[in-house]
Amino acid sequence: MTAAPDRVARIGVVTFPGTLDDGDARRAVRFAGADPVALWHADPDLHDVDAIVLPGGFSYGDYLRAGALATQSPIMRSIIAAAEDGLPVLGICNGFQVLTESHLLPGALVRNEGMRFIRRDQPLRIEATETAWTGGYRPGQEIVIPIKNAEGRYIADEATLDELEGSGRVVARYLGNPNGSLHDIAGIANAAGNVVGLMPHPEHAIVPGFGPDIPERMRSGSDGLTFFTSVLARLGIAPAADRVPVEHAPDHHTADSGIRE
Ligand SMILES: NC(=O)CC[C@H](N)C(=O)O
Fold first, then answer.
1. What's the pLDDT tens digit per position in 204-232?
2. Mean pLDDT across 88-108
3. Secondary element (H or E) of residue 100
4. In the chain, how many domains are there?
5. Could you list the residue range(s) of the whole structural domain that residue 141 is in?
6. CB 3.0 to 4.6 Å from 131: which of 127, 137, 145, 189, for a disulfide?
7. Whole-prediction pTM value?
8. Catalytic (active site) residue 203
9. For position 90, which CATH number holds?
């Protein structure tokens, strides 16, 4: 028996009008052993959360540019200030677009090469394990999680790319570049390592058997969970074991996912 943690980590998941993946992000937080806290775009109060996830989707209908209007929301003003003070923030897909539009991360995400919406199971290599969200991976670890977007092509000027590469801030790289991203970049971090943007979706690959299969490992599907457990380790807050529903204990596969909000 391990001792019960002193307290359970509170991880905020933001919902903007048009957000799609907030439910899966809250579930991923719970499976990692933390309490998800639903945060609403119009409320600037961060409700004492220990970390924040900006989930995927189409905030404000992707009007103007994907992620651009979200930067003007009351909650983003609070998140920008908190992130600059070191609060861990993970932006997934549209959340990554919000982070570049907010200038918490450099560069931009533009239309995929080929101008198509892409949805596939995407192999990645984790390049940086010093960040708040990737400490649980091995350097160079290869994972497979879903990707699904129209504007996932990462671009930046040469000086920015040099700085990202030179300071170990490329967090994840595509193995088989799906969209023309420069330097095969799938994810980056800020200089302090507390803010991470990632184009593919770890929150859709947290339950063994229900995410992308990896043939050479027979069955996986939970490669994304480590993003959410890594931040607990960074915060120094032990995961609460009872947040994981019994029917989803690792290695237990059922026909019905049983996942309920
Ligand atoms: N899955 C998503 O978050 C989609 C992101 C974004 N709106 C795009 O299509 O590029």
1. 999 887 778 776 665 678 999 999 999 99
2. 98
3. helix 94-101
4. 1
5. 10-247
6. 189
7. 0.91
8. yes
9. 3.40.50.880
